[in-house]
Amino acid sequence: MTEHSLWRFSRALHLAINEGELEQLNAILDEEVDWAIYGPIDMFPFLGARRGKEAVLEVCRQIADNISIRRFDRESVMLGEEQASSLVRYSLIAADSSKPISVRAAYFTQFKRGRLSCMRMVLDTFDLVEQALGHPIHLPAAV
Known about the structure:
The chain is α+β, with helices and mostly antiparallel strands. It has helices at 5-19, 23-28, 53-66, 125-133, and strands at 29-38, 48-51, 67-79, 83-94, 100-112, 115-123.
């Protein structure tokens, strides 16, 4: 049995973010990869949609300039033949302040011939924004 593409993508992404090493990620990306990380793009401009291998490699450089991954724990994984989803809790370090950040992310990935063709990531943005601001967000009580 061969290794699922999700594991190769996960290793390549973490190597790109923590070490700035993009070769493995470049090798696993489809030329027309469709990529989106849903979150507050006003606060984190490296979030949002990208199309094509070069755009994805550039956004991974931007992410690497802003954070490093200290730890991640997969809470749930579902694997199909050419698709996968995963719920992950990340412990990150902000590059500018060395401040720890904890965020939950849900990945939804599709692969073609072993290459990443589509990736959607949904972040727990409320918690992420509170951590970035350094204080809780107080919402009005629901009526």
